[in-house]
Amino acid sequence: MDSAENDMSDTLQELPLGVLSPQVTQGSFHEPIAREDTQQSEQLDKSSLGLENVAAQKPSFQPRQTSGKYNLNDFHILRTLGTGSFGRVHLVRSNHNGRFYAMKVLKKKTIVKLKQVEHTNDERRMLSVVAHPFIIRMWGTFQDHQQVFMIMDYIEGGELFSLLRKSQRFPNPVAKFYAAEVCLALEYLHSLDIIYRDLKPENVLLDKNGHVKITDFGFAKFVPDVTFTLCGTPDYIAPEVVSTKPYNKSVDWWSFGILIFEMLAGYTPFYDSNTMKTYENILNAELQFPPFFQADVQDLLSKLITRDLSKRLGNLQNGSDDVKNHPWFSEVVWEKLLCRNIETPYEPPVQAGQGDTSQYDRYPEEEITYGRDGEDTHRELFSEF
Ligand SMILES: Nc1ncnc2c1ncn2[C@@H]1O[C@H](COP(=O)(O)OP(=O)(O)OP(=O)(O)O)[C@@H](O)[C@H]1O
């Protein structure tokens, strides 16, 4: 067994799962924001900089054929797995192959009201092109009069967020394992010129073996150059986004630093119950480490969570290699990790098999009205679904 494997397996003993009661050190979850004038400001800013064609450029990759394959009658809806600002995710079972899937449902009216049409279409587009071991796979999309639907793999192990809150904080090797898998996912997205823009523990799911699956591409976008939209989740947003400067992929490396910090500390570095104060902290506050942070991780975090873009790791000449080659990751055998060939620090207890929902919180169920006839004034806005 090589050093990386040793490192990870040690963590099984260290992780105090189920021993500590859930402890919420700050707001119970990180709520996303998307500025309401998103589309308008993006257009204004682009044209003023002569970048009008950036958004219109097509990715160099071909989307998989995902629309028109399914409709609501293909699935039996079982229960709610999660709710977000823009929609609800249900566990569903296919009437054809008996398999379980996650069905994300977004109400067209809400999308339009919150000015998320572009983001929703981008989410669909981005998910239809990505294929990576640590990223959720989408199988198809469709729409009815009032909703759009996305069918994805159901990931049984729950959110990294729940595990983190139960554990309070992760030991160094556990945080390192999850960070390393997330790092490979970000590296892959960036290689396709996709910025993810919403990295946080709620959007990192664990599969039944304990490997990472990144979900929620609601803010992901094809950006070969720079973009402007204020979106993300306050604690995790990079300073250049807060100050509405043009920004690029490096915002994901900032958030990656915040994720590592939160996994190790149990809280995010710039948190304040007042969101405006959080932004102020992101722009001005000094990054302070708890005393138990080791020197190598302090070094890595100070190079990721830096406001100076010319110094931020991931944004330099060697791109993601600088992150992967940092001493904190020295035990990680990246090729083995990518093949999921490294023992996970924690296997979610999903004894009931594929449709087990024990790792997800219960949400109040609403009456299902999907598929009903009604006025559909927005079909043309979602023509790709
Ligand atoms: N493929 C999946 N398998 C299992 N659970 C999932 C899956 N996708 C999403 N979920 C659950 O549903 C929750 C909400 O999903 P998602 O984040 O995509 O919705 P959202 O409306 O965009 O949320 P947000 O407000 O965070 O942007 C997730 O945090 C997770 O708990």
UniProtKB/TrEMBL annotation:
<dbReference type="GO" id="GO:0007265">
    <property type="term" value="P:Ras protein signal transduction"/>
</dbReference>
<dbReference type="GO" id="GO:0005829">
    <property type="term" value="C:cytosol"/>
</dbReference>
<dbReference type="GO" id="GO:0010737">
    <property type="term" value="P:protein kinase A signaling"/>
</dbReference>
<dbReference type="InterPro" id="IPR017441">
    <property type="entry name" value="Protein_kinase_ATP_BS"/>
</dbReference>
<feature type="binding site">
    <location>
        <position position="113"/>
    </location>
    <ligand>
        <name>ATP</name>
    </ligand>
</feature>
<keyword id="KW-0067">ATP-binding</keyword>
<dbReference type="InterPro" id="IPR000719">
    <property type="entry name" value="Prot_kinase_dom"/>
</dbReference>
<keyword id="KW-0808">Transferase</keyword>
<keyword id="KW-0418">Kinase</keyword>
<dbReference type="InterPro" id="IPR011009">
    <property type="entry name" value="Kinase-like_dom_sf"/>
</dbReference>
<protein>
    <recommendedName>
        <fullName>cAMP-dependent protein kinase</fullName>
        <ecNumber>2.7.11.11</ecNumber>
    </recommendedName>
</protein>
<feature type="domain" description="Protein kinase">
    <location>
        <begin position="75"/>
        <end position="329"/>
    </location>
</feature>
<dbReference type="GO" id="GO:0004691">
    <property type="term" value="F:cAMP-dependent protein kinase activity"/>
</dbReference>
<dbReference type="GO" id="GO:0005952">
    <property type="term" value="C:cAMP-dependent protein kinase complex"/>
</dbReference>
<dbReference type="Pfam" id="PF00069">
    <property type="entry name" value="Pkinase"/>
</dbReference>
<keyword id="KW-0723">Serine/threonine-protein kinase</keyword>
<dbReference type="GO" id="GO:0010607">
    <property type="term" value="P:negative regulation of cytoplasmic mRNA processing body assembly"/>
</dbReference>
<dbReference type="GO" id="GO:0005524">
    <property type="term" value="F:ATP binding"/>
</dbReference>
<keyword id="KW-0547">Nucleotide-binding</keyword>
<dbReference type="InterPro" id="IPR008271">
    <property type="entry name" value="Ser/Thr_kinase_AS"/>
</dbReference>
<dbReference type="GO" id="GO:0005634">
    <property type="term" value="C:nucleus"/>
</dbReference>
<dbReference type="InterPro" id="IPR000961">
    <property type="entry name" value="AGC-kinase_C"/>
</dbReference>
<feature type="domain" description="AGC-kinase C-terminal">
    <location>
        <begin position="330"/>
        <end position="385"/>
    </location>
</feature>
<comment type="similarity">
    <text>Belongs to the protein kinase superfamily. AGC Ser/Thr protein kinase family. cAMP subfamily.</text>
</comment>
